């Protein structure tokens, strides 16, 4: 029966990445010995001296979605994104991009995909030191055979998009870390890719620059609606950027969910530990906890709470209805008054 549902931008089914001699053969043998149980097969592989870095991973990424993969160091997240983008050859499974299984794609097809469909940004900028900013950004277009005038025009457009107008003639050594990463992002966007892979692109930058680039990423995404797979080990970055988050542990995905689902309903203690120190009011939304009872209670006040409000914003709106309250000094005398809304506003200003 046919379905009107669109194909996912990326579909991974039973993906394995195993390192060691005869990895493909050994994986088949381990799965056979384990009667198809992937956890037992992983244990057998380790016993036999192999490293199952990615284990039986399955998920879909929807068109225009920011899909964040996070986990601790060694969890397999960077190996997974390299496998999805075919920077390394997967051991088993299927990885389809717009319905095409790229694990079976030959070298020529892979080159074409990387030149036309896939944009990649990594933690280490990978800029050519002998090239200007303009030439670095235009390099992927040069590889496509685009003429010099068109390369220049497109490079100038994307440099403006990432806030680097006026720095076209500079060289990487003359740029700050944040500016170099912007060049990397502009280079990835130059070919107008369908898919965008970002492997911890901001982790080498200081916190202030990281926040600025995160905000810029969200602005770019709002305008471009690129399908993105974003790797991070930072839960606050994941919650800020993601439509959905996949959390990895020891090569396996333990939970996939929206930021609200990860915060409100962690599947186990491992996920719960990630979110333990997260200010939940800043990232979870009213929609994750509201309900519609059969009989509505009396509600004399209406602070105009909306389903997509964060809990912090909703509480601030509620507090705006409250009356001023006294503040008492150490001597037991009233020292002044404060409105609850002032407290909420101060807290929000501190967090913004």
From TrEMBL:
* Subcellular localization(s) per the UniProt record: Cell inner membrane
- Family recorded in the similarity comment: Belongs to the ABC transporter superfamily.
Supply the name of the protein: Quaternary amine transport ATP-binding protein
Q: What is one term from the GO cellular component aspect held by the record? A: plasma membrane
SMART domains attached to this UniProt entry: AAA
Q: Which domain of life is it from?
A: Bacteria
Chief location of this protein within or outside the cell = membrane
- Pfam families named among the record's database cross-references: ABC_tran (PF00005)
What EC designation does it have?
Answer: 7.6.2.9
Gene3D superfamilies, alphabetized: P-loop containing nucleotide triphosphate hydrolases
Q: Where is the ABC transporter domain?
A: 39-275
One GO term (biological process)? glycine betaine transport
- Write out the GO MF terms: ABC-type quaternary ammonium compound transporting activity; ATP binding; ATP hydrolysis activity
- Assembly and binders: The complex is probably composed of two ATP-binding proteins (TmoW), two transmembrane proteins (TmoV) and a solute-binding protein (TmoX).
Top-level enzyme category: translocase
Q: Which UniProt keywords apply?
A: ATP-binding, Cell inner membrane, Cell membrane, Membrane, Nucleotide-binding, Transport
Q: Matching CDD domains, A to Z?
A: ABC_Pro_Gly_Betaine
Q: State the reactions this protein catalyses.
A: a quaternary ammonium(out) + ATP + H2O = a quaternary ammonium(in) + ADP + phosphate + H(+)
Topology with regard to the membrane? Peripheral membrane protein
Give the originating organism.
Rhizobium leguminosarum bv. trifolii WSM597
